[in-house]
Peroxidase (Triticum aestivum), 320 residues
Amino acid sequence: MAATAVRCLLMAAAVLAPLFAGSEGAFLSSKFYDRRCPSLQTIVRSAMAQAVAAEPRMGASILRLFFHDCFVNGCDASILLDDTANFTGEKNAGPNANSVRGYDVIDTIKAQVEAACKATVSCADIVALAARDSVNLLGGPTWAVQLGRRDARNASQSAANSNLPSAGSSLAGLIATFGSKGLSARDMTALSGAHTIGQARCATFRDRIYNDTNVDAKFAALRKQTCPQTGGDATLAPIDVSTPTWFDTTYFENLANKQGLFHSDQELYNGGSQDVMVRVYMRNPDIFAADFAKAMGKMGSLMPSADTPTEIRLDCKKIN
Ligand code: HEM
């Protein structure tokens, strides 16, 4: 009798789960696709392995894509929607335009996933898995991704313009921005460790190398070689000066050496509340790995508001 009751409850939960997936963190499960799409995680992993082998930076780009999706009305793949004649999305918002990349990789994975499991897996879940695999393929930790997100049928360019932190942010500003998403200062510092991989455009760090006083002189001189005071806005430099395609803790060492590339990076180690965490992560890669994985899980559970219309998009670039 008791077993039957438990079975009924489980069945009811399975039926109702999609209805609740639109509200904060509800009913996500690492087993969500175990029966619905058993090959999902293998498909994503091998496609990301190929993409990263072809271009290691792609791992960084996909990780950032996930961050920029989650911070704007939750992890709902809204960032993937193309602008159309009567729809303005997030791709061309200030922090994303000519900057966020990897959309084609997500489209390739989605096509493979659709071929294996039609109309079953959300684009938002594909991005979450691809971000996790990116980190791991570049030498970082791995973790079980909570799944069951749904894709938004709308996007907000204005939210993308206002919700994402900029390279000029102060420590107080960063703590407030992440705090508004339910992420602690410690989560923020751990997540900033993502800047151990990837590249940035001169325009985003020019002020730092020409105007900041807490910058290592040799490092600033090195970056000035390819980032002039005027022009060259799009010229790239590695964010981590020593190992830009390896997910390690050198980012935090760089901060301790005043070699953070962005003003916002160096704010984490400038005599403020996060100095202690920077030193902890720098000396304890295991603590960083555990905190990063945990904070990615928290960031990944940001959901669109319950009244956001959602679906399982068939093509990540457009609503069904
Ligand atoms: C703490 C606040 C943050 C600020 C102010 C910030 C700012 C930036 C900026 C300005 C760039 C360069 C963009 C360009 O050149 O166009 C960048 C790149 C990047 N960011 Fe952040 N970011 C922050 C947090 C994060 C988080 C939380 C993640 C992921 C968990 C992340 C992952 C990355 C990655 C991987 C890149 C390199 C992307 C590539 O090479 O394509 N960032 N970030």
